[in-house]
Amino acid sequence: MIKRKKIAISIVLAVSILSGCSGENTIVQQQNIETMTEKLEEEFYAMAEEFQQLYDPCDQMAEVYNHALDILRTYIEDGGEEARKKALNEIKELMKTIQNQNLSDYVMSEEVQSFLKKRGIPESEFLAIAQKRVTDQQEYLQQMESYEQNLSEFIVNIGVIPMTLKISVDYQKEIQECERMWMSYAANEVFLSLKEEELDYMKKNVFSNWKFYCPEEMVWQDKASYALQKQEEYWNKEMELLNQMTEEVGELVNPEYGEEYGYVVDADANVMILRYIGENTETEIPEVMQNYPVTAIHSGAFGNTNIKEVFIPTTIKMFGDDIFAGCPEVTIYGEKGSTAEKYAELEGIPFQGKENRQ
Fold it and tell me: Record's InterPro entries (predicted)?
């Protein structure tokens, strides 16, 4: 709730003998003006209170989501099982915070309708914020559920942090910053029609309470066209970043080698073969996929397939468990003295130099 403070409004009444108004009429006029002024003040306070009730959840959820991105960034940089568990628990708690936001249906009061009409502010501006609360909650939870799934399942199963997670988090941080500025200038544009003392009240008692929106680096614009220009600037940048993120993640999720190998690019820009999904009895693992070096083969990657010959390049340095379980006829081909030869010897799998491969 906003603490209401009386806005000092100086009313100057011009009383002239030539006006023909009696002293009694002048008193009545003054009382009417004071009543109208008090009503307008009440309407303004009602508007400020409803706006804060609408905007605060947007600000709070944005702050929580931004904190979640910071947690993920720290985990991606540090890595490790304990860091994963810590990040997972923190993300779950932040999801609860967003889920527990009270987003009751908004019905605009008559006082606010009256005030907005007098100041020329479209009611749609308030209704749009009311809808944004719901949309933001859905989108934040959807993103965080994806992060939770990465931390609780995918990373546990493959043993590496996927590049897609790093790309998503890095882009989301930039996108959130654009959203932060865009929303700030949106508020700027909406309230330009307020009187100076009303705007001062909003800045001191409403905007100053926000944790994410209305940042210090924002420069308040005194013309609607300037505020709209700023909104467009940050909106376009946000859309550009979103498209770039979608494209980069899409390239990794839908790889050109998808018909033969299931694989993942980790946060260190290395490829791990997850599963051989081809139908041939012979295959050659490439040294590079998606411009990233292929450095690892996951546990059971070729298990129970009809594979008989596999060429493993020297870039492969890490081998999971039981890679060729259920493949009794397999022979590994590679460079003499390579990690592949050492792996074959350790596992009792026949090995041939690449020169012997047909």
Answer: LRR_dom_sf
**320 vs 198: CA distance, rounded Å:** 66
Higher pLDDT, 350 or 9: 350
Assess whether pLDDT exceeds 90 at residue 169.
yes
- Cα-flanking dihedrals φ and ψ of residue 319, to 5°? -125, 130
The answer to whether 195 touches 8, Cβ cutoff 8 Å, is no
Q: What angle in degrees, to the nearest 10, is found between the helix axes of 224-253 and 163-190?
A: 170
Q: Cα angle vertex 211, ends 207, 213, to 5°?
A: 60
Per-residue pLDDT, 21: 47
Q: For residue 225, how many other CB atoms are within 10 A of its CB?
A: 9
* Strand partners for 263: 273
* 332, 310 contact by CB (below 8 A): yes
Enumerate residues 6+ apart whose C-beta is below 8 A from 275: 261, 262, 298, 300, 301
Given a cut of 70, whether residue 105 has pLDDT beyond it is yes
| Secondary structure (3-state) at 268 | coil
Instruction: Report how far residue 273's alpha carbon sits from residue 297's, in angstroms, rounded to the nearest whole number.
Output: 5
Nearest CA-CA partner of 7 in 205, 214, 221, 184: 205
Residues 6+ apart with CB under 8 A from 44: 7, 115, 198, 201
Alpha-carbon distance values, 320 to 12, 274, 296 (Å): 85, 10, 8
Residues in the chain, overall count: 358
Domain 261-356 has CATH 1.25.10.10: no
pLDDT higher at 10 or 305: 305
Task: Calculate the CA dihedral of residues 184, 190, 196, 200 and round it to 10 degrees.
Answer: -40
Rounded distance, CA 301 to CA 278, Å? 11
Question: In the 8-state DSSP scheme, what is residue 287?
Answer: S
Instruction: With beta carbons less than 8 A apart as the criterion, state whether 130 and 54 touch.
Output: yes
Instruction: Give the CA angle between residues 115, 118, 119 to the nearest 5°.
Output: 90
